[in-house]
Amino acid sequence: MLTFETVNELTLKVTCSGSDVLFTKAGAFVAGENMGGKNYTFDKVLFGPQQNVGQAILGSIVRRVTGENIPLMKVMYNGDSVTYFASYGRHVVIYKLGMGEVISVESENILAFTQDCKYDVRFIGVGILSQRGLATSTLTGIGHNAYVAVLCDGNPIVLSNTKNGSTISVDPDAVVCWMSEHDYCDPQVKADVSWKTFIGQSSGESYSFEWSSHQPVTVIIQPTERAGVPTANSSNTSYSRHGSGIHIGID
Predict the structure, then answer these.
(1) Worst-scoring range by mean pLDDT, 10-14, 41-45, 247-251?
(2) Which range marks the domain in which residue 58 is found?
(3) What is d(CA 186, CA 207) in angstroms, rounded to the nearest whole number?
C-alpha cells in the first residue's frame, strides 16, 4: 500500500507498506530509504500504464497525436520503503480520488499516481488559440488507494463552486487540473472576440474556460501562465496543510 505526503511543498514523499506499483514522471526520483538492500526498482513505461497491451499502444498513439504525451516510469516496490520525487522545484499538490471520481489534468503537470487510478487521454473538443484545450489527460479512481500528485508553478489557487454554485472562469494557460465527483465536467470555452481583436486592440484575455453554476467542480490553477507558446491573446473546499504539504479535497 502506498501513501502520499509532501515535504516542504516541493517534494512528494511516497511511503510503501509491503509490495505495490507507482507510476511517475520519468526521472522524477530524487531519493529513497529502506532497511537492508534496496527493495524497489525502476522500469520505463514503453506505451502506457494500462495492463492490456492493445489499450496501452492505442493510448500511446492518442497521447502523441494530442500532445498529451509524457515519459512515464514504473516504480516496483518489494517491501517497506520511503521514496521521494520532485521536478525542478515545482510545488506538489496531492489529491486522493474517491471511487469513480475524475481529475482532468494537463500531462505536463502529472508527477505521480498509484495503480488504483485509471489513466487515459480524451478529446474535449474545444481547440482554441492556446496551448490548452484540444485534449486532456484524465485519472479516474478505480480503487480505495487512488492517489494523484500534480505539479504547480507556484503555490496553487483553488476555486470550487460545489457549495456556493458560483461561475468559475479561468485562463486556459494557467489551469493545472479540474475535478468532479462523478463525471468529466468539461469547461465551456468563452471567446471575447470583437472587431478590436482584429486590429490588435484586444484586452489580452480573449478566451477563457468557464464552468457554470450547474457544473459542480473544483479547479486548481497556478499563479503564472505557461510561457513559450502562443496564448489566447494572439464551499466548501478543504484546503489544509498536513505537515508542510498541501492536500485538497471536496466535501
Answers:
(1) 247-251
(2) 2-237
(3) 15
